[in-house]
Here is the input.
Amino acid sequence: MSTFQDYVDTFDSESGYLNWAAFGPLSPSVREEFFADADLLGSGRPSSLSLVGERIGQAQELVAELLDAEADDVTLQPSSTHGLMHALFGLSGAVIASTAEFPSVSLTLERASTASDRTVTPRWITPDDGRVTPDTVIDALDDEVVALAVSHVDFRTGFRVDLAALREAIGPDRLLIVDAVQSFGVIDADYSAADVVVGHGYKWLRAGRGSAFAWFSPRARERIVPVLSGITGTTATGLFVDELPAPSPSASAFTVSQPDTLAAGRLAIGVRDVRDAGVAAIEERLAQNVDTVIEIADRHGIVVSSPRERTARAGIVALAPEEPARLAAALANAGLVVTARGDSVRIAPHAGTDAATFGLLDDALHAFGNETFISV
Here is the structure.
């Protein structure tokens, strides 16, 4: 894969898929490489196992490249929640988080506050529309606060927080812990403001479940105790028995066991494809496709509750119709895959979403509007 158009051409799913914020169908290159790796593991030969094992380092290096970080500071995780557990369970002090956060953040913080003798204390904030801004954070700050945990992109509305502004708000002495599941690989962001960044490949990277990562900056490693550190996160070299070695001073301390090499391979290929296509180009095309969704919704009188400014959003458009359940049913009947939750219907295109899909959406919203008019 060498050009952006090559990347777009890999979106070979049937028209109608607008649910990338929930799950990304595996890309052709990920599927191809996965099957090849699986065949190698089927032999059981040490040389084959070693070859597939190289995927771990490849994934770390590629993720680090997009983060503009060091590969040794990147760990591979079964899920982004595992990465957040390593970060939040190892803190002492108050941690600010929104009550509207995805449970990977909010529930993990709550569990950390009740685990063993840890002294983590949630400092909950409830900002308007769930949008975490510098002002909402500043109001919650005091000397007890040691960190802010936040999603880079809100999973419901697509609102994108300003990482640099949040860093300025909390100051240089507190940690900024970022869940980048809804942004990594599709938003050309500067993650240098953060101290911990977690992500997962099963949405926008099209790499499947189990392909997560967590990056821990040197400063984060100084302040977070690796309480969940496992056999792969110690100072020992090789297998150890009859001893209990200390946690490693490196980011590997925030791991429990060896990564799944097949998952590492999927992550490596997913990130490689994004790197080769160019994250900035992907973001631009995604922004255009989100504009298209908003334009279609506006034309048919469907309220959009997501931000309209490109710099304040990502790939999610939340629709707020008067009858969300009926709209969700109409979209499903038209062959469109979306997420309906509560009073909102979430539309999530990708850079490779085709014109036929937008045509289906246009027709479905037109039919929905006419049915609404007729029924009144």
Summary: The mean pLDDT is 95.
